[in-house]
Specification:
single chain, alpha/beta, 29 helices, 14 strands, globular
């Protein structure tokens, strides 16, 4: 009778009330709540965070979602319980077998860009396998996911773009940056790498195609420091591009307009920084990457005391270079104070290294003015002097300008100044000519030459040229990898001063301790810890850095050093011996920069407990038993009548 009444549309008020209760509808609304829920059902579940809610994950999600997918590593029991049995071949593989297949597959490609695309595809379908492959084969994979291949990937980004990864926030989103951030599905973001694409490596303005840099950097955050991938967010701030070739390129993916500059640009970046804190909190690490020289120092000075931020091009490059210089003291026997340093290039990288060199000298007791006096610098207009008529001395450049007649020719500068250390950060290939290298060898028993520009095609000189023009006496490092050099019957393996030694460990230490701000002391600690990881056999082979395959251990040691510093009673810069002595003190009150309490006693073990697990975990639901209930007599059920109000509904 009840069903007939529903079909005929003649339903009493009492029957309608009961029907609404069954269907989950209020009396004032005739739309069933279960239909509302179905309307918002997702056919594809995106897993967020590292805690999976079993009721929200379907069996097929374990094949579709890269965080859950294990490929053929699902066991028979997992396949049957998850409802994916029959959706895969009958073969069962271990993660190690899958890794071997990945290495075979990637080595089949001849071009590095195709290898890069293979890794992108692997990350999109099997996240743990991707990070395990990268973390266990750093020396092989680093040149593909990072410099130099990532530079080529950025240049071809419009062509190879497949699937969105990260956020694109444009100048047209002014006033709604927070709303754009809300669209990112992960609520627990701890680390952000942001770029506006104006100065990608040494390649110039690549606009929105520069997104490959934040994506690559954050992949290394996880692979090299174990930071949880769901806590990482790459962001492209798209304000246009001044690259005419890109503006005319039909494959370009960004805003097709000239760059917005001036007050409008600054206000947009201010809004972006505020929106990050509003969305994710004051402790969110914001790493600036590949901004133009004229903006990089401005933003660092502007935001460093208000946000948890650093600039890797300035501070990360500085730390890895100073770490190499610290290691070189074991070869030359000289302290920082005994060196005269010549920089070629006066951009953000050079200024950053110079500033940290000064800090290192100050830590050894050298006054700041005296430390700056030991550093000389040249840009495209020649030596930085107070008397030159061309070029600018804006920003930090003025600290290194000398009362000296203007000199334009680099060889003449080297002959006159006779530096013990020559550092290139100019992005000008071949700038260190054989004559310049020979002059460095003539005035130094062990000349130190760093050709730091990226990618390899922009290096100031090759490793081979450095050794052959200095009788093999040079102490050499580069920003991009070079092959081993054969000289005088020896095989020399020069080290690469890669920022990847620094920024993952710094990020791990900062995120774990929830530091609000990042002082320069952090990068001096990172440089010292990096130098301490260099073994005698590394120096004998011609490298100032540990092998890239040990970078995970380097990152952890840097993070431990930063953690100790963050909990120190006084945040002042001490020399190396005093700093290590201070760190070894136990029971120190946590009055430093850390916000994570209580202070962990075993800091290394505490950090290791927070690292990402690269290995597959069981996909089986967790079950447990309850105790057998004790039999208990219950009273008889007595029927109850509906009240008059309930009857009338």
């Amino acid at each position: 009778m009840f069903v007939r009444n529903l079909r005929n549309g003649t339903v009493s008020k009492q029957t309608q009330c009961l029907t609404n209760r069954i269907l989950g509808v209020s009396s004032a609304n005739s739309t069933p709540t279960h239909k509302k829920k179905d309307a918002g059902n997702r056919h594809y579940h995106e897993v967020t965070g590292d805690i999976i809610c079993p009721s929200m994950v379907q069996g097929i999600d374990h094949l579709r979602d890269p965080r859950l997918n294990k490929g053929l590593a699902f066991t028979l029991e997992e396949r049957q319980v998850l409802g994916i049995h029959g959706l895969q071949p009958a073969r069962f593989k271990t993660q190690e077998e899958q890794l071997e297949l990945c290495k075979i597959s990637i080595n089949r490609y001849q071009e590095d860009l195709n290898k890069y695309l293979y890794l992108v595809d692997l990350q999109d379908r099997n996240e743990r396998l991707f990070f395990k492959l990268l973390s266990e084969n750093v020396e092989m994979m680093m040149p593909i996911v990072y410099t130099p291949t990532v530079g080529l990937a950025c240049q071809k980004f419009g062509l190879i773009y497949r699937r969105p990864r990260g956020l694109f926030v444009t100048i047209h989103d002014r006033g709604h940056v927070y709303d754009v951030l809300r669209n990112w599905p992960e609520p627990d973001v701890r680390a952000i790498v942001v770029t506006d694409g104006e100065r990608i490596l040494g390649l110039g303005d690549l606009g929105a195609c520069g997104m490959g840099i934040p994506v690559g950097k954050l992949a290394l955050y996880t692979a090299l420091a174990g930071i949880q991938p769901h806590q990482c967010l790459p962001i492209m701030v798209d304000v246009g591009t001044n690259n005419k070739d890109l503006l005319e390129d039909p494959l370009y993916i960004g805003l097709r307009q000239k760059r917005v500059t001036g007050a409008e640009y600054d206000e947009f970046i201010d809004e972006f920084m505020s929106a990050i804190v509003k969305r994710y909190g004051q402790n969110t690490l914001i790493q600036f990457e590949d901004f133009g020289n004229h903006n990089a120092f401005r933003f660092l000075d502007k935001y460093r005391d208000s946000y948890c931020t650093f600039n890797d091009d300035i501070q990360g490059t500085a730390a890895v270079a100073v770490g190499g210089l610290y290691a070189s003291t074991r070869v030359t026997g000289k302290t920082f104070a005994e060196h005269k340093i010549m920089f070629v290039g006066a951009g953000e990288a050079a200024i950053g290294i110079a500033d940290l060199c000064c800090k290192a000298m100050e830590a050894d007791g050298i006054p700041q003015d005296e430390a700056r006096g030991k550093i000389w610098m040249a840009d495209i207009d020649g030596l930085l002097t107070t008397t030159r008529k061309v070029g600018d001395l804006h920003g930090h450049k003025k600290f290194y300008a000398k009362d000296h007649p203007p000199v334009k020719d680099l060889l003449e500068i080297v002959k006159e100044i006779k530096p013990t250390i020559l550092i290139g950060a100019s992005a000008t290939p071949g700038l260190f000519t054989p004559q310049i290298l020979q002059e460095m060898a003539a005035c130094n028993e062990r000349p130190i030459v760093f050709a730091l520009s990226n990618p390899t095609s922009r290096a100031e000189c090759t490793a081979e040229a450095a050794f052959h023009n200095t009788e093999g006496r040079v102490i050499f490092s580069s920003g991009s990898p070079f092959p081993p050099v054969h000289y005088d019957g020896k095989i020399i393996k020069p080290g690469q001063g890669n920022n990847a030694y620094i920024f993952p460990g710094v990020a791990l230490g900062v995120i774990a301790t929830l530091m609000h701000h990042i002082p320069d002391d952090v990068f001096l600690i990172a440089a010292r810890e990096l130098a301490a990881c260099v073994q005698d056999e590394d120096l004998e082979s011609g490298s100032l850095y540990p092998p890239l395959d040990s970078v995970r251990e380097v990152s952890l040691r840097i993070a431990v050093g930063i953690t100790k510093y963050a909990y120190a009673r006084e945040n002042i810069l001490l020399n190396a011996d005093e700093m290590r002595k201070k760190y070894q003190l136990e029971g120190m009150a946590a009055q430093g920069l850390a916000s994570t309490y209580p202070e962990p006693e075993d800091k290394r073990k505490w950090l290791e407990g927070q690292l990402y697990n690269f290995n597959y975990e069981s996909s089986m639901p967790i079950t447990w038993k309850w105790p057998t209930p004790t039999p208990m007599k219950t009273r008889a059920v007595k029927p109850t009548k509906l009240t008059e109000k309930e009857e009338t509904c």
